[in-house]
Specification:
Elements lengths: L6 E5 L8 H14 L4 E5 L6 H16 L7 E4 L8 H22 L2 E5 L6 H8 L3 E7 L2 H7 E3 L6 E4 L1 H17 L4 E7 L7 H17 L2 E4 L5 H7 L19 H16 L13
Parallel strand pairs: 1-4, 1-5, 2-3, 2-4, 5-8, 8-9
Antiparallel strand pairs: 6-7
Helix pairs in contact: 1-2, 1-9, 3-4, 4-6
Length: 277
């Protein structure tokens, strides 16, 4: 696919703490381990969580001398312009320039958006071939997708993020003559069954038909995801020789979650290579 335009995967959600960076890094490493060339762009220039994840990964390689597949990485820094319109234009141009470079040399580009509504994140959504939105099993997260009647639990209207995605989908169709495949994942799932979790399971399948997204299971609430960040590792790295970490049932379950998400994304040529993970 390199040389013919990379497939762009945007990880977006207007709420922080939903696990976007964890999803972005695991997707990137999964694609790398399947033999694809991957570029990563971090648009959250304040926290730079994805950038720190990649930096931690390179530091681990330098320290242990154990080679790991590495993505190409770029970050769009904030403009110093005083006028907002000029700053937005400069940041957009910087994003487009970095993206163009990756489009010519990568098979996939993974873009990690900040957990807020900013102009650069909106622009990134308009170039997305695939949009992944992780949400926690929380009614606060659900409200971003759709507003529910508190008595009947029926969908009253689209939430602020769903409305935004709808607008940006229309813009993409006008400018790129293509749509956006939108996948919502339930992330940080607890193993415990509770009323909130059951309601989410009931409501989301109904909402997807109206709001135009596909639904998939995301990543569970597992310590291993947070633990591996410090080393820049992912659960897909743990079977590699030279990584001294005992595999547990929880680790294997986490690997299955990542593999399942990659399969559900319907990315070009990916499902044919899942057995390489």
């Amino acid at each position: 696919m390199a040389g013919h335009g990379a497939h762009i995967i945007v990880i977006g959600n207007e709420k922080g703490g939903s696990g976007k960076t964890t999803v972005a890094m695991h997707l990137a490493v999964g694609l790398l381990r399947m033999g694809f060339k991957v570029g990563c762009l971090d648009l959250d220039h304040r926290q730079q969580s994805l950038g720190r994840y990649v930096t931690n990964r390179q530091a681990w390689v330098d320290r242990t001398k154990v080679g790991l597949p590495m993505p190409r990485f770029g970050v769009v820094m904030p403009s110093a312009a005083e006028l907002k319109a000029q700053a937005v234009a400069e940041e957009r141009a910087a994003f487009d320039s970095q993206l163009a470079e990756f489009m010519d040399s990568c098979d996939f580009v993974v873009v990690d958006c900040p957990g807020s509504d900013v102009a650069l994140a909106r622009h990134a959504h308009t170039v997305a071939d695939t949009l992944v939105t992780p949400i926690n099993d929380s009614l606060l997260d659900l409200d971003l997708l759709g507003q529910l009647d508190p008595v009947t639990w029926e969908l009253k209207q689209a939430g602020v993020y769903s409305k935004l995605v709808w607008e940006l989908r229309q813009e993409r169709r006008r400018t790129h003559k293509a749509g956006i495949d939108w996948l919502v994942t339930r992330s940080r799932l607890s193993a415990l069954a509770d009323r909130n979790k059951k309601k989410m399971a009931e409501v989301l399948p109904k909402m997807q038909k109206v709001l135009g997204f596909r639904l998939a299971e995301g990543f569970g609430e597992r310590v291993i995801y947070r633990y591996l960040f410090l080393w820049g590792l992912t659960v897909l790295d743990l079977r590699q020789s030279g990584i001294d970490l005992e595999l547990t049932k929880s680790h294997e379950a986490a690997r299955a979650e990542v593999t399942s998400l990659l399969a559900n994304l319907w990315l070009p040529r990916v499902n044919d290579r899942l057995d390489r993970l």
